[in-house]
């Protein structure tokens, strides 16, 4: 049976591309890159393009997940809400084509956002700061693309799994708030209750594993290895850990040689898991849903 995934993906790319809010966020991301590069060039002396490259970590963390979630949370459930899903499935595309075609189409939109941000950084880096370290630039761009795709997969998976727009929005917003605003409370909070103190620099292994499972942490830990300087995670802090611990990756906080699941490269596995698992769950539920 011929797959219609590319056809659905092209339609999804066009549909998502009409979202004013989405393109406003992409414009905001590119604008922050321009403002940041110009501001650093104007105010900081003796800085290289390699050092400035790490600046991208903050606007990417702030804007990219939100743009990806907006791009994906209505991908499937929007068709169910309008009733057009029955018409769509009455044509050649199957439920498999719908889910994975929509996933690829929304990934394309986020890929454009990441590509524009890094293209602007390449041009400004070369013009304002001299030669750009292309290997670091490409590695950082690839990791950032995976980061954006992770949140697209999360949103599309949720959209396929639920039956209403409200449920989809509630789940994706809730998960984003867990990653950004509640992660320390959910991890360091129990640590404090168990050990009567906040996590020290050399914390228990289970806590370091939980830290690594946050896709935002996984991204910043991995990206920090690719650029000059450190990229700190965009997260609410409640003072349950020391400031020294906040700036360290799980592998750095492990006494001795860290196991593979605490190494920075394991962040790729973490982000892939947050991409694949929600899509798999959403696909299963959508495939068995009574439409």
From TrEMBL:
GO CC terms of this entry: plasma membrane
Work out whether the entry's keyword set contains Transmembrane.
yes
The alphabetized UniProt keywords are: Membrane, Transmembrane, Transmembrane helix
Q: Per the database entry, which stretches of residues form a coiled coil?
A: none
Q: Which domain of life is it from?
A: Archaea
* TM segment ranges: 21-44, 56-76, 103-131, 137-162, 169-194, 265-286
A molecular-function term among this protein's GO annotations: ABC-type transporter activity
**Record's protein name:** ABC transporter permease
